[in-house]
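Re: your question from the hallway

Yes, I did run it. Sequences:
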Amino acid sequence: DVKVTQSSRYLVKRTGEKVFLECVQDMDHENMFWYRQDPGLGLRLIYFSYDVKMKEKGDIPEGYSVSREKKERFSLILESASTNQTSMYLCASSTQSQNTEAFFGQGTRLTVV
Amino acid sequence: GDSVTQMEGPVTLSEEAFLTINCTYTATGYPSLFWYVQYPGEGLQLLLKATKADDKGSNKGFEATYRKETTSFHLEKGSVQVSDSAVYFCALFNTNAGKSTFGDGTTLTVKP
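Structure:
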């Protein structure tokens, strides 16, 4: 089975802290994605990557950056956490085929206080 | 850009009732279409998919047909169970964009 693992289920951080959310997939997928999920707003794409060291901005990249040094790992970085970044963060991976689905991690619920 | 519009929730049904969740999309080219389900406290998982016009995806009693003429992919189930209570997301993947586009999700609650 494909597995996408996010490093933490729950995280509490202080305003201004630098926060790292880690995601690892074990199926050699080319594409990896970071979303945030908020009530009433659905899933919003933050960043995605289709290859090592490649990154593309999604719909809401402001306040975030990403790193993909290895194919299996995609990190989301909050440079200076703010309370409006309190959210559920979901990582996903997929092949580059249009016909295959995305596989999601279990999510990280981040609270910034 | 691409977009997915799905029926607003929440939806509350009694066990064994018929379920329809509407989904329409706007996209360039020929996207693949998906329904994902999210159970409480978990990430999304694939429920079913269809990769070309007139394809029918099905799984666990759920069905959806890719209708290119109406740009729709409505989710249906003939008899829902309490265990079907979850959030359902309609999505498309467009090779041109290299990414998926999701609807806002529809929360389904099934009461015994």
